[in-house]
Specification:
7-stranded parallel β-sheet; globular; Rossmann fold; 251 residues; alpha/beta; disordered C terminus; 9 helices
Length: 251
């Protein structure tokens, strides 16, 4: 099981975009993927509820909801068959809560936008990960994703200079694309859209997936060894984010 946590205390950095599209990628490649929404804003929850009954299977959890009928521990139990867990964390996390959020994470993704405010926030969150959460650089667990990038702009050049000063890898650069807006509206990931429409965008995800899967026996370009030969129709059930029940979710 591989646990991937997407963090950035600043809202609007693209955490949800990264989380939902990463979960979608793994679902398309027949991994048994769990997508956990810890953010009370519920953006991941809304996306999940839009997914139709024919969508690739994703097991959804809304960690921020309390239905009053079951314990939190019971509602958030991870299915034993899960091979990938993607967690969308809340904004405005304090350093100690950030450390709790990334505990036991195999990979930690920090999206950053090309703006002065976002660069400052990224500096702080990486410092908190290194100094408070005690993540060692040598573990290769922290990766930065440059998000909503428009190349050949001054702000992008400034972002590049900043990212070059970090002692953590920049694992992907995602362009500013309307395909992400359309996919969010439809309740799908860009990897579930028509390939000829999203080819440029999907190519930009490959370095990120390869970094996540680095050191593992599974292939980043297709089903992992754990998923080899598995029937996509017999994967983990989709669940309702609202209740955490085993009912099929649809939007």
């Amino acid at each position: 099981m591989l646990k991937i946590v997407v963090v950035n205390p600043k809202g609007g950095s693209g955490k949800t975009t990264v989380a939902i599209n990463l979960a979608s990628y793994y679902a398309v490649h027949h991994e048994r993927v769990v997508l956990m929404d810890q953010d009370p804003q519920g953006s991941t929850t809304r996306w999940f509820r839009k997914r139709g009954p024919g969508a690739f299977p994703i097991h959804g959890m809304a960690a921020w909801e309390d239905d009053g009928r079951t314990t939190r521990t019971f509602r958030l139990r991870i299915p034993p068959a899960a091979s990938r867990i993607v967690i969308d964390t809340p904004a405005a996390l304090e350093a100690l809560k950030l450390a709790d959020a990334v505990r036991d994470a195999d990979k930690i993704i920090v999206p950053v936008l090309p703006s002065d405010i976002d660069v400052h926030t990224c500096t702080r969150v990486i410092a908190d990960l290194l100094l408070v959460a005690k993540i060692r650089r040598a573990e290769n667990r922290i990766g930065v994703v440059a998000n909503r990038v428009r190349r050949n702009t001054l702000v992008y050049q400034s972002l590049q200079r900043f990212l070059a000063t970090l002692s953590v890898p920049v694992v992907a650069t995602l362009r500013d694309s309307q395909n992400y807006v359309r996919s969010a509206e439809l309740g799908v990931g860009i990897h579930e859209m028509k390939p000829h429409l999203v080819a440029e965008d999907t190519r930009q995800w490959q370095p990120l997936v390869e970094w996540i899967e680095s050191g593992r026996s599974g292939s980043a370009a297709g089903p992992s060894a754990a998923a080899a030969g598995f029937d996509p129709q017999a994967t983990l059930p989709e669940v309702s984010f609202a209740s955490g029940s085993q009912d099929s979710a649809r939007g």
